[in-house]
């Protein structure tokens, strides 16, 4: 019945890096893979057609934004997100939890990545109870409840191939007790999410939509290894999900993040694909693939493009095209890059577009950054396949 | 030697509509044709690749903007505009005059189209003399001279297939004497432009660029028929250009504009293609094709898209996707339109993109509007070919 499957094709011996294939009703994903963010049902400044041309395998949209605008009912009427946004490949939606709690607690995203919290962010989380979270809509100010059952129903309507259990994204700046209680509640919410999902296995938002979905669990526990172990135990034994994501706070430094991810990934057995939430830096990706991560997502490739930054190989990893020094540079971003932007345009032209405030700048640079990330993931897969991981990593990062 | 030619393939008997082919070193243009504006060496929110896919035949860039940013030298270093912007088809540059005088006099563009002048526009024209015009750069405030010789040199560096003589775009709100003196000076500037052009016929900005260009004259005379006749006489007999453009003020109403264009076009013989500057409204295009115009240009298709307006057939000619009534509309902009946007996206989705302030909205709507204009021009050409002009016009405009 299920058109979903996952298999590891090869695993390295000296570390946990692996290549595999995740199959969905909308096609296969070769892993390790990067998932691009079409947050509000649109890649920023970029068509799904061009994303496909740039070898994008899978994209995600955010339940939180879409439940507020245009509302999941309208997307259901289209037959789901795939039809709404003109994307025929694999898709994922998150549960909405991350944004509610991120905006609510202040800035979970900053904390996860060890940045200082930004007190200017408007707090919209009103209350958390066993039932769910009540928050204020940024569209019309209405007070809304998101619960595990409601998140699953919305994700059913959105109709992505992969959906995610509803959890609290616990902030970093709370004590161990808060983190523990939050994890326990997230586990209960996970169980309710799975129950809601299973009670409605053949749900179709609209005749003609596939109605076939699979669900990911989330491993909580913040920076505490004993709690991570408990959450792994819960996710492995108490609930049955297609895949697992490593969520929650990963600490306040890169070293801490690496330790927590490595600890968590190493304890997972090999029966489910593992997703790492919110990581997009190429150096991190090489590191975490080595630790056993299969998929990544982050807004960074498209966000960097909007700020004028082109992704490039090497330790620094990016160059800013707004810099005056590119004014007369007749080279492309990367002579060896095969993307449309690098095959057709010079740094001088791209710099001119930013200097002239032409929106085309964002589109062309997004094109390069998306191609770059997909090329990175392909290079990693080939390196694993050819037992050449360390060499290729060092070559890519110019180490 | 010249790779340029123009021939009329067919002319209607009951009006002046005609189809023809303009050949250039970068390919043929089937006329009547619409020229899209890549003002600052970029179509707004749109790649030249997608423009080509949408059957765009020719685009133009503006000398005024490019001489200020990035400067024509940098474009020359690339081997010209074609290489700079990744467009391998025919191109045109204007002389820079329109913008200098438009910004300088206040708002010539508004006057040409009968709109009220906008006193907020910053006046940057400092002085006009026999030598040329001195204006203030909006980039760095420097005082710069643009003369016929300088305009031609810059247009040589830019390397478009078609370039235009330098003229004063005479405002509407001046008396007949001013208009007459301005026309006389523009004729002298035309002659100097042609001399500069001819003195340097084999100029190549860079080894490898084609170095082959042709030039358009401009017919002046404002709303005064006797002066239009004098300017036609000058353009036909005193100078030798590949084509002619109808420039200057066309009056303050649509009726006046139609009368002046009709009068002018009817006096031109059939040895040169005729361009009408700055007109993009589909109703106007049907009218002016009937009067003998071969090519049009206007920023309207891409500008309308940025304001949320989709071009549609019919007398009103556009719908605004920001309108809440499209919220749940599952139809495309036009069920019969074959563009990428109409084949893949609903009004509901496009409305959502505008409601969410996603830049993709501009790209998808620009796609439709460019396709729409090229489809309009193709429909007109077929109608002329098949002696079906009136029927097709009435059908298109729902008359």
Ranges of chain A where pLDDT stays below 50 over 5 or more residues in a row are: 117-121
* Major sheet details of chain A: 8 strands, parallel
- The average pLDDT of chain A is 92
Number of domains of chain A: 2
Supply the CATH superfamily name of the largest domain in chain A.
Answer: Queuine tRNA-ribosyltransferase-like
Strand order of the largest sheet of chain A: 6-5-4-14-13-12-11-10
Largest interface: A-B, 39 and 39 residues
The separation of the N and C termini of chain A measures 48 Å
Strand content of chain A: 15-25%
Could you tell me the number of beta strands of chain A? 16
Q: How many helices of chain A does DSSP assign?
A: 16
**What is the C-alpha radius of gyration of chain A, as a whole number of Å?**
21 Å
Characterize the overall form of chain A.
globular
Identify the CATH architecture of the largest domain in chain A. Alpha-Beta Barrel
Which CATH C-level class of the largest domain in chain A is it?
Alpha Beta
Structural class of chain A: alpha/beta
Oligomeric composition of the shown chains: homodimer
Offer a concise description of the structure.
2 copies of one chain form a homodimer. With 399 residues, chain A is of the alpha/beta class.
């Amino acid at each position: 019945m299920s058109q979903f499957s996952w298999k590891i094709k090869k695993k390295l011996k000296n570390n946990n890096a692996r290549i595999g294939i995740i199959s969905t009703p909308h096609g296969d994903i070769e892993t390790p893979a990067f998932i691009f963010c079409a947050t509000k049902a649109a890649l920023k400044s970029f068509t799904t057609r061009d994303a496909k041309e740039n070898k994008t395998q899978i994209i995600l949209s955010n339940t939180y934004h879409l439940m507020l605008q245009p509302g999941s009912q309208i997307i259901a009427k289209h037959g789901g997100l795939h039809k709404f946004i003109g994307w025929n490949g694999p898709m994922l939606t998150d549960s909405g939890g991350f944004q509610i709690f991120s905006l609510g607690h202040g800035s979970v995203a900053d904390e996860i990545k060890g940045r200082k919290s930004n007190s200017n962010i408007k707090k919209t989380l009103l209350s958390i109870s066993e039932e769910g979270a009540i928050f204020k809509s940024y569209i019309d100010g209405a007070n809304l409840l998101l619960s595990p059952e409601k998140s699953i129903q919305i994700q059913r309507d959105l109709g992505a191939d992969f959906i995610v259990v509803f959890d609290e994204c616990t902030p970093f700046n709370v004590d161990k007790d808060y983190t523990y209680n939050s994890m326990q509640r997230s586990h209960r919410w996970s169980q309710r999410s799975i129950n809601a999902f299973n009670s409605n296995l053949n749900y179709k938002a609209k005749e003609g939509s596939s109605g076939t979905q699979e669900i990911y669990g989330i491993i909580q526990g913040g920076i505490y290894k004993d709690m991570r172990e408990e959450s792994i135990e819960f996710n492995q034994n108490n609930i049955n999900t297609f895949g697992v994501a490593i969520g929650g706070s990963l600490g306040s430094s890169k070293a801490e993040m690496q330790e927590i991810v490595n600890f968590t990934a190493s304890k997972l057995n090999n029966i489910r694909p593992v997703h790492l939430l919110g990581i997009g830096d190429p150096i991190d990706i090489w590191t975490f693939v080595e630790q056993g991560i299969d998929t990544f997502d982050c807004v960074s490739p498209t966000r960097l493009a909007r700020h004028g930054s082109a992704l490039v190989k090497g330790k620094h990893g990016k160059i800013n095209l707004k810099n005056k020094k590119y004014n007369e540079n007749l080279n492309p971003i990367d002579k060896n890059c095969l993307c449309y932007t690098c095959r057709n345009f010079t740094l001088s032209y791209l710099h001119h577009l930013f200097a002239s405030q032409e929106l085309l700048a964002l589109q062309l640079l997004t094109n390069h950054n998306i191609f770059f990330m997909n090329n990175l993931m392909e290079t990693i897969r080939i390196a694993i396949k050819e037992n050449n991981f360390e060499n290729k990593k060092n070559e890519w990062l110019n180490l």
